[in-house]
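the two lines:
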Amino acid sequence: MKVCKGETYERVFVNEEVRLNIEQEADSHVKIHVINAPFSITVNQIGEGCTTEIYGLEHLRGEDDVTAETHVTHSVGGGTSNQLIKFVLEDNARGRFIGDLKIAPDAQQTEAHQTNRNLVLSEKAEMRTQPQLEIYADDVKATHGASTGQLDESALFYMQQRGIDKEKARQLLVNAFMKDVLNTISDEALREQLLDAIDGVVE
Amino acid sequence: MKALLEIKDLHASIGGKEILKGVNLVINEGEVHAIMGPNGAGKSTLSAVLTGNPAYEVTSGEVYLKGENLLEMAPEVRARAGVFLSFQYPVEIPGVSMTNFMRTAINAKRAYEGKEPLSAKEFLALMREKKKMLELPDKLNNRSVNEGFSGGEKKKNEIFQMAMLEPCLSILDETDSGLDIDALRIVAEGVNKLKTPHNASIVITHYQRLLDYIVPDFVHVLADGRIVKTGDKSLALELEEKGYEGL
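prediction for all of em together
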């Protein structure tokens, strides 16, 4: 699909598998959230001054096996892209993030950020992360970061020392981890609904 | 007087290394006990063991809180039973608001006591009341727990949580470290305001300075995992003058 000059494509997909291949014309905007579903999103900025935002949140349990893929190409300059992909893995879940970010030789003054953070809550769960950056332009600002870790034991103990049982403390930390993805949703009613849904686990 | 806390021949280790080598201590209601000692003596280990920090192993000895076996309780149960630790290094918890954190903690304690949970309105009123009592700014509520707080703000936030939870035994672990004199005064005044005839405090400190503000009934010197000397507040002054080597 094509997002025409100056237009905006914004969608939040919840529990719905997503396969998208998008070309962005000049000054167009793309903002996509995928919550708890596999996705493969390819975006090519073919016009100047575009913005692309991709957010993914995967809370996997049981035998879940989910792959999230992003392929973002800045073919021309003056654009920005921002990706934040988070996985929470429990039980025997498997997650994989593949993130290609390409900045073409002519795509000067591009700003591109890709962040993948994963929380592994079980010894049997497994996360694989394959970020790949290809930067051929020199006047760009690009960052990427990937990290996979466990819950902060010192934070868990701090909460227990205040009387909060370990299970609830875990839930508070996991929810805190997930919240910043949901906080980027523009639609306030939907955002509050999704935030309430994760908070509901705590109450 | 009734014994609030009894520690009998407590031995504890971390990573196989013995740190506490037979601590004995009785604390009664209404008392303030200072524990002083050189670095590495086991001061922070004692607070960690009393609160059930899983990094430490109790190898022998007994601890009773109001006659109940404290060492058999999970950390959160000790907290609900009234043991509070003001952490030397309060932990930052990004994404968890102070309000949500504190309300969860208060209602866990109330459930333990067989009381109904506080409503949002009652809870906020309680927060305001305690803030006012301690003369703390209101702005902390909407921030994440300790995130981006200065050293002084973190310690004030510990005392605020202490005020909210009304513990029977407060352990202040190096609460004075990293505080300027104004923050130290506010923190100490807060601790003094929270003192009642029915609660007690253990003040762990390296320096005598804090004890100018929080006046102890007893001063204990912990060295190499044991309490080697006990006295009144003049012992702290003596230590300040002569150092721990002078004992």
